[in-house]
# Entry
Amino acid sequence: MSLRSLLKREESYALHALLLLAEEPGLSAQEMAAKLKAPPAFMAKVLQKLAKAGLVESRVGRAGGVWPKLPPGEVSLLRVMEALSGPVTLDLCATLKRCPTEERRGFCHLKPGLVRLNLEIRQALASLTLKDLLPEAPGRA
# Structure
Protein backbone atom coordinates (compact mmCIF):
# COMPACT_ATOMS: atom_id res chain seq x y z
CA MET A 1 0.00 0.00 0.00
CA SER A 2 1.38 3.40 -0.93
CA LEU A 3 1.59 6.33 1.46
CA ARG A 4 -0.87 9.18 1.30
CA SER A 5 0.34 12.62 2.27
CA LEU A 6 -1.90 14.83 4.36
CA LEU A 7 -0.38 17.87 2.67
CA LYS A 8 -1.40 18.54 -0.89
CA ARG A 9 1.50 18.80 -3.33
CA GLU A 10 1.13 22.56 -3.75
CA GLU A 11 0.97 23.06 0.04
CA SER A 12 4.24 21.15 0.41
CA TYR A 13 5.90 23.21 -2.33
CA ALA A 14 4.59 26.39 -0.72
CA LEU A 15 6.07 25.48 2.65
CA HIS A 16 9.41 24.56 1.09
CA ALA A 17 9.37 27.78 -0.95
CA LEU A 18 8.68 29.94 2.10
CA LEU A 19 11.44 28.23 4.08
CA LEU A 20 13.84 28.75 1.17
CA LEU A 21 12.88 32.44 0.94
CA ALA A 22 13.42 32.86 4.68
CA GLU A 23 17.01 31.79 4.13
CA GLU A 24 17.57 33.22 0.64
CA PRO A 25 15.18 36.13 0.00
CA GLY A 26 15.07 37.63 -3.47
CA LEU A 27 15.39 34.45 -5.51
CA SER A 28 13.57 34.35 -8.82
CA ALA A 29 10.70 31.94 -9.28
CA GLN A 30 12.91 30.04 -11.76
CA GLU A 31 15.74 29.74 -9.22
CA MET A 32 13.32 28.54 -6.57
CA ALA A 33 11.86 25.92 -8.89
CA ALA A 34 15.36 24.64 -9.69
CA LYS A 35 16.46 24.51 -6.04
CA LEU A 36 13.27 22.74 -4.99
CA LYS A 37 13.18 20.47 -8.07
CA ALA A 38 9.69 21.74 -8.85
CA PRO A 39 8.14 22.24 -12.27
CA PRO A 40 8.63 25.98 -13.01
CA ALA A 41 5.01 26.56 -14.07
CA PHE A 42 3.73 24.82 -10.96
CA MET A 43 6.07 26.88 -8.73
CA ALA A 44 4.84 30.07 -10.41
CA LYS A 45 1.25 29.07 -9.62
CA VAL A 46 2.15 28.36 -5.98
CA LEU A 47 3.96 31.70 -5.64
CA GLN A 48 1.00 33.50 -7.19
CA LYS A 49 -1.29 32.04 -4.50
CA LEU A 50 1.19 32.96 -1.77
CA ALA A 51 1.34 36.53 -3.13
CA LYS A 52 -2.46 36.77 -3.24
CA ALA A 53 -2.52 35.65 0.42
CA GLY A 54 -0.02 38.38 1.34
CA LEU A 55 2.77 35.97 2.26
CA VAL A 56 5.25 36.91 -0.48
CA GLU A 57 5.78 39.74 -2.92
CA SER A 58 7.41 39.80 -6.31
CA ARG A 59 9.76 42.66 -7.13
CA VAL A 60 11.14 43.65 -10.52
CA GLY A 61 14.45 45.23 -11.42
CA ARG A 62 18.00 44.72 -10.17
CA ALA A 63 16.84 43.89 -6.64
CA GLY A 64 14.01 41.81 -8.03
CA GLY A 65 12.84 38.38 -7.14
CA VAL A 66 10.43 36.92 -4.62
CA TRP A 67 10.53 38.22 -1.06
CA PRO A 68 8.73 37.14 2.11
CA LYS A 69 6.27 39.76 3.39
CA LEU A 70 6.14 38.49 6.99
CA PRO A 71 8.71 37.25 9.49
CA PRO A 72 8.86 33.43 9.69
CA GLY A 73 7.49 33.50 13.24
CA GLU A 74 4.23 35.02 11.99
CA VAL A 75 3.52 32.37 9.35
CA SER A 76 1.92 29.17 10.62
CA LEU A 77 1.53 25.95 8.69
CA LEU A 78 -2.23 26.36 8.97
CA ARG A 79 -2.05 29.81 7.37
CA VAL A 80 -0.01 28.48 4.45
CA MET A 81 -2.26 25.47 3.91
CA GLU A 82 -5.40 27.60 3.99
CA ALA A 83 -3.84 30.20 1.68
CA LEU A 84 -3.32 27.48 -0.93
CA SER A 85 -6.35 25.24 -0.47
CA GLY A 86 -8.94 26.89 1.74
CA PRO A 87 -10.10 25.90 5.23
CA VAL A 88 -8.56 22.73 6.66
CA THR A 89 -10.84 20.09 8.14
CA LEU A 90 -10.35 16.40 8.85
CA ASP A 91 -13.76 15.46 7.47
CA LEU A 92 -16.61 17.60 6.18
CA CYS A 93 -19.03 15.68 8.41
CA ALA A 94 -17.58 17.55 11.39
CA THR A 95 -18.54 20.89 9.82
CA LEU A 96 -22.20 20.06 9.23
CA LYS A 97 -24.89 21.06 11.69
CA ARG A 98 -26.36 17.56 11.28
CA CYS A 99 -24.43 14.92 9.39
CA PRO A 100 -26.30 12.27 7.37
CA THR A 101 -26.05 9.76 10.25
CA GLU A 102 -27.52 12.30 12.69
CA GLU A 103 -30.37 12.98 10.28
CA ARG A 104 -31.02 9.26 9.89
CA ARG A 105 -30.51 8.06 13.47
CA GLY A 106 -30.78 11.21 15.58
CA PHE A 107 -27.17 10.93 16.80
CA CYS A 108 -23.70 10.14 15.49
CA HIS A 109 -20.97 8.57 17.62
CA LEU A 110 -18.28 9.49 15.10
CA LYS A 111 -18.93 13.22 14.85
CA PRO A 112 -17.79 14.29 18.37
CA GLY A 113 -14.47 12.52 17.81
CA LEU A 114 -14.05 14.13 14.42
CA VAL A 115 -14.83 17.57 15.83
CA ARG A 116 -12.26 17.07 18.63
CA LEU A 117 -9.60 15.77 16.24
CA ASN A 118 -10.29 18.59 13.80
CA LEU A 119 -9.75 21.18 16.54
CA GLU A 120 -6.55 19.48 17.72
CA ILE A 121 -5.14 19.25 14.19
CA ARG A 122 -5.96 22.91 13.49
CA GLN A 123 -4.36 23.96 16.80
CA ALA A 124 -1.23 21.94 16.05
CA LEU A 125 -0.92 23.41 12.53
CA ALA A 126 -1.57 26.93 13.84
CA SER A 127 1.06 26.59 16.58
CA LEU A 128 3.88 25.51 14.25
CA THR A 129 5.49 28.41 12.39
CA LEU A 130 8.10 28.64 9.68
CA LYS A 131 10.52 29.88 12.34
CA ASP A 132 10.09 26.57 14.17
CA LEU A 133 11.18 24.76 10.98
CA LEU A 134 14.27 26.83 10.23
CA PRO A 135 17.71 25.89 11.54
CA GLU A 136 18.96 27.90 14.49
CA ALA A 137 20.95 30.93 13.45
CA PRO A 138 24.64 30.69 14.43
CA GLY A 139 25.22 32.08 17.91
CA ARG A 140 21.56 31.69 18.97
CA ALA A 141 21.73 28.09 20.13
User: Anything to note?
Assistant: The CA atoms of residues 131 and 139 lie 16 Å apart.
